[in-house]
Automatic annotation (TrEMBL):
UniProt organism field: Pontibacter aquaedesilientis
Lineage: Bacteria, Pseudomonadati, Bacteroidota, Cytophagia, Cytophagales
PROSITE patterns named in the record: PASTA
PANTHER family (alphabetical): PEPTIDOGLYCAN D,D-TRANSPEPTIDASE, PEPTIDOGLYCAN D,D-TRANSPEPTIDASE FTSI
Protein name as it appears in the record: Transpeptidase family protein
SUPFAM superfamilies, sorted: beta-lactamase/transpeptidase-like, Penicillin binding protein dimerisation domain, Penicillin-binding protein 2x (pbp-2x), c-terminal domain
Length: 699
């Protein structure tokens, strides 16, 4: 009996506890659902619905003639609210919509899409991502006409979520100068340096967190983003292309490690081309800005002899005809021996010949004789020339120059002569070029610039003017002397292989030994810096080819030919430098040039230069025109290029045709060997899709 009663008692106690627990659960449910229901619903809503940033459209980067170097193109993710459409609209269009989605994405069957959408509608889901692939604007327009979608966002439920991608119409051209910026706000080039202007200000809108993503809620409280400003650079895309091609050929031929080319306008300091190429396993690419950054900061070698000669002429009454005995090509200084390239030496030569032949001994002796008692005076001249300071260039990452002072612990008895020929110091190529540019500019040192304007649409927000860093780096007499020496290098010295019959070049070759593991090795940094035309300088330029291999690895053999190729192309396309030749040309107005179509600005300029009359129904807003002859003049008519349509390129040069068709994202095949487009395979005005290909025939 006692055992039976004990069991019954335990059962009753257990039952009572279960009942109490059940009552507690019921009470808690009632409390949450009824008593505190409003509170928890509010918390749920706050967690599910929140404000999120709406990215602003990033500004464009333009070249000097306003060709787009970088822009943001719109792409879209396609989402869907299957509960919005009326039953009649939904049922009538779901089968066709599923079939179109299957054909477009080519990843799932029509039945898969139909079931996915219908199940979401039945479950009351307000947002589903139809596919993770992003579509372009033309595909968006096409989808917007599909069944159910054609009713729009509010009645059909289609949601096109905008995603912007950075696009460079000229591909790899000036890639490092244009630069990039990543999601962590790290980057390089103009994209990084001017991110504050390009990025704009993000907006804000309500988004609902649901399965598959975040659905925007347009309740009228959203804040529209402020799109970024555009920047207009000083880069000339044609000269940039020339510089990159010339540099690439030299790097491949010499199996070099890297190289750079900078082309700058003498008077304004505007950078017209800045090419940088480094060797990788896949070839040469623009992976670093050697022209400006720390990796390109090296001992300049013989191009620095210009600074040494400037200091000599400023400090003494030395003349170009004074002589220096360079001996047998070997010069003992303290415990080291300096040599010249020529075996047996140059003997006794003039100061001008010292520079033309790039005699290390000649320069070192002149500096030693005149500054040995006060080497700091030589260093002070380098400070005066601005070589110890950065240029304040508009791009982030400019290397800091290293010019040794006599107070440095590493200053030895041979430092003065080593510095005189470009060793025991470091400069970036742009900093060396700025000195040569100052000499070309009659002693006025200007700050290099690469961005001319910041603007929104046609409204200029900020303009960057030419800034003078030093209005007189040396006396007029000194500048005259060193300019004569620089011309002599090309006429008679180490760079006479680039002498031109059409215009004069002035410059200096450089060949500096490289340091590895603290020792100089038989690898060189070769260079050529100068300007042209020498009698009335328009451009200055520097070329660096690092670690060329093979025979003839001196600056005159490696870097100078690249300079000449760039200079020749720049001279050929700049009619302002051809005045003497142009004055002898008498235009034959009875014979009109065979012009059919092309750029309005280019054709107007050329016809004006050769004295051919032209009339126009086009305006300067019409970039492309067609040309028809009228008696003794030519008539321009607009030849508009519409986005999404095949343009008319007949009559154009191959270069213009490829430029226009490439900007329309068309795949182009070229036939024939002529100069102009005779016919095209796709009629003008035809709608473009991703499969559109066009063949152009030259005549």
């Amino acid at each position: 009996m006692n055992i039976k009663k004990s069991i019954v008692l335990r059962v009753r106690i257990a039952f009572l506890l279960v009942c109490l627990f059940a009552c507690a659960i019921v009470y808690k449910v009632v409390q949450i659902q009824v008593l505190d229901g409003t509170k928890w619903k509010q918390i749920s809503k706050e967690r599910r619905i929140r404000y999120q940033p709406v990215p602003a459209t990033r500004g464009n980067i333009y070249s000097d003639n306003e060709s787009i170097l970088a822009t943001s193109l719109p792409f879209y993710r396609v989402a869907f609210d299957p509960a919005i459409a009326q039953a009649e609209t939904f049922n009538a269009g779901i089968d066709s919509l599923a079939m179109l989605l299957s054909r477009f994405y080519k990843d799932q069957s029509p039945e898969h899409y139909r079931r996915k959408i219908k199940n979401a509608r039945h479950a009351g889901r307000r947002y589903i991502r139809l596919n993770s692939r992003q579509i372009n604007y033309q595909e968006k327009k096409m989808m917007a006409s599909w069944p159910i979608f054609r009713a729009g966002k509010n009645k059909g439920g289609v949601i096109f979520e905008k995603v912007e991608k950075r696009f460079k119409p000229f591909g790899m051209l000036a890639e490092r100068a244009i630069g990039f910026i990543n999601e962590d706000k790290n980057g390089a080039g103009l994209e990084y340096s001017f991110n504050g202007d390009l990025a704009g200000t993000d907006g804000e809108a309500l988004f609902e967190r649901i399965a598959g993503g975040n659905k925007p809620i347009y309740d009228g409280t959203e804040v529209a983003p402020q799109n970024g400003y555009d920047i207009k650079t000083t880069i000339d895309i044609n000269l940039q292309d020339v510089a990159e091609n010339a540099l690439y050929k030299a790097l491949v031929e010499k199996n070099a490690d890297y190289g750079c080319v900078i082309l700058m306008e003498v008077k304004t300091g505007e950078i017209k081309a800045m090419a940088n190429l480094g060797k990788t396993k896949g070839g040469f690419i623009e992976d670093y800005n050697y022209a400006v950054g720390n990796q390109g900061r090296t001992e300049p070698g013989s191009t620095f002899k210009l600074a040494s000669m400037l200091a000599l002429f400023e400090h003494t009454d030395l003349d170009l005809t004074d002589t220096v005995d360079t001996g047998d090509g070997r010069y003992r200084i303290k415990n080291t021996t300096m040599t010249d390239v020529k075996i047996g030496g140059y003997g006794k030569i003039t100061t001008k010949e010292v520079f033309e032949k790039s005699s290390n001994i000649g320069v070192a002796k002149l500096i030693q004789e005149n500054f040995k008692d006060n080497p700091q005076a030589f260093v002070d001249y380098l400070h005066k020339f601005g070589l110890s300071s950065t240029l304040g260039f508009q791009m982030d990452g400019e290397a800091r120059p290293y010019i040794k002072n006599t107070s440095d612990k590493t200053w030895y008895g041979t430092t003065l002569t080593s510095m005189s020929i470009g060793y025991e110091m470091k400069l970036a190529p742009l900093q060396t070029l700025a000195l040569y540019n100052a000499v070309a500019n009659n002693g006025v040192k200007v700050q290099p610039i690469i961005v001319k304007e910041i603007r929104r649409a046609d409204q200029v927000i900020q303009t960057f003017q030419t800034r003078v860093l030093n209005d007189r780096i040396a006396s007029e007499e000194t500048i005259k002397k060193v300019r004569a020496m620089l011309e002599g290098v090309v006429q008679n010295g180490t760079a006479k292989n680039i002498k031109s019959a059409d215009y004069k070049v002035a410059g200096k070759t450089g060949t500096a030994r490289k340091v590895k593991d603290g020792k100089y090795v038989k690898l060189y940094s070769t260079s050529f810096a100068g300007y042209f035309p020498a009698d009335n300088p328009k451009y200055s330029c520097i070329v660096i080819i690092d670690s060329p291999r093979g025979v003839n690895v001196y600056g005159g053999d490696v870097a100078a030919p690249v300079f000449k190729e760039v200079a020749d192309k720049a001279y050929a396309r700049d009619l302002a430098m051809h005045q003497p030749l142009r004055a002898r040309v008498v235009p034959n107005k009875d014979s009109l040039p065979q012009v059919k179509a092309g750029s309005f600005d280019d054709l107007s300029l050329i016809l004006n230069k050769i004295g051919i009359s032209s009339h126009s129904t086009a305006t300067h807003d019409d970039e492309w025109v067609r040309v028809t002859p009228q008696m003794r003049s030519l008539k321009f008519e607009p030849n508009p290029v519409q986005g999404g349509q095949v343009p008319d390129v007949t009559g154009m040069t191959l270069r213009d045709a490829l430029f226009i068709l490439g900007n329309q994202h068309l795949k182009v095949h070229v036939e024939g060997m002529g100069k102009r487009v005779m016919k095209q395979s796709v009629q003008p005005g035809t709608e473009i899709n991703k499969e559109t290909k066009i063949t152009i025939v030259l005549s």
